[in-house]
Design a protein that fits this description.
Strand content: 25-35%
Strand order of the largest sheet: 2-1-5-6
Structural class: alpha+beta
Radius of gyration: 44 Å
Shape: elongated
Distance between the termini: 117 Å
Helix content: 10-25%
Order of helices and strands: HHHHHHEEEEEEEEEEEEH
Number of helices: 7
Oligomer: single chain
């Protein structure tokens, strides 16, 4: 029946075949392709149903922020200066009264602290530190501003004891430091010294292998160049700066 109807339609001169793009196999592809339309030609429900990117999204996302990104030239010109810590509390009257007597009697000694280690020195002494100090070279002048005692033959100025709070909540009393405005202590770096090479044999139980460890430590040598007690006028000049 199907073949006879097709033959009859072909033989009929008045009948015209439909175009190929209207066939069902092509119509499904035509319906799935959406035409290119602008925002003004699209209805409001269709605009709300999809995810759209704002026109200024790309420019705002990739736009450089001048506060966060600085040019290399600007970074090179910026310098950070850290002012040394200086006491602002006034000096007591008793210290002002006895400080000229201490200054007049020479020579002076001082108990300077380096990495929380006390060194009782006077001018001209040579110290060999029990470690190698990085960042210094021979000839550099170091200012020692941590001291717990300063004195002469008859007078001694000592710092008080302060409470040091530990991480576990306990308190431990430690020595304090003198006001750095009262004295001037400077040391010159002479160089470094090396100890003889030391050999240590290490082994483990039930093993025949023996490992030899070599060690040769270096130590920094300092010479105390100046130990002086400042006058009241010099202290007032430091406070006025």
């Amino acid at each position: 029946m199907l073949s006879s109807s097709i033959r009859r339609s072909l033989l009929d001169a008045g009948s015209v075949l439909p175009p190929s793009y209207l066939l069902p196999c092509y119509a499904r592809f035509i319906n799935t392709v959406s035409p290119t339309t602008g925002p003004g030609q699209t209805s409001e429900p269709l605009l709300d149903s999809g995810v759209h990117i704002a026109p200024n999204f790309r420019s705002s996302k990739f736009q450089s922020n001048p506060r966060q990104i600085a040019s290399p030239a600007a970074k090179s010109t910026q310098t950070t200066s850290i002012a040394p810590a200086r006491s602002t509390h006034p000096i007591s009257d008793s210290v002002k009264e006895l400080l000229p007597l201490l200054r007049a009697q020479k020579p002076h000694f001082i108990t300077a602290h380096l990495h929380d280690r006390p060194y009782l020195v006077t001018e001209g002494d040579i110290i060999r530190l029990p470690f190698f100090m990085h960042g210094v070279s021979p000839g550099d002048v170091l200012r020692l501003n941590r001291a717990s005692a300063l004195g002469s033959r008859d007078y001694t100025l000592k710092a008080g004891v302060v409470d040091h709070h530990l991480w576990n909540g306990k308190t431990r009393r430690k020595h304090g430091f003198l006001d750095e405005r009262l004295f001037a202590c400077r040391a010159v770096v002479l160089g470094t010294e090396s100890e003889p090479m030391r050999f240590k044999e290490k082994t483990k139980r039930r093993q025949r292998r023996v490992k030899t460890v070599r060690s040769k430590h270096r130590y920094t040598i300092l010479k105390i160049h100046e130990v002086a007690v400042r006058s009241l006028d010099e202290i007032d000049g430091i406070d006025g700066e």
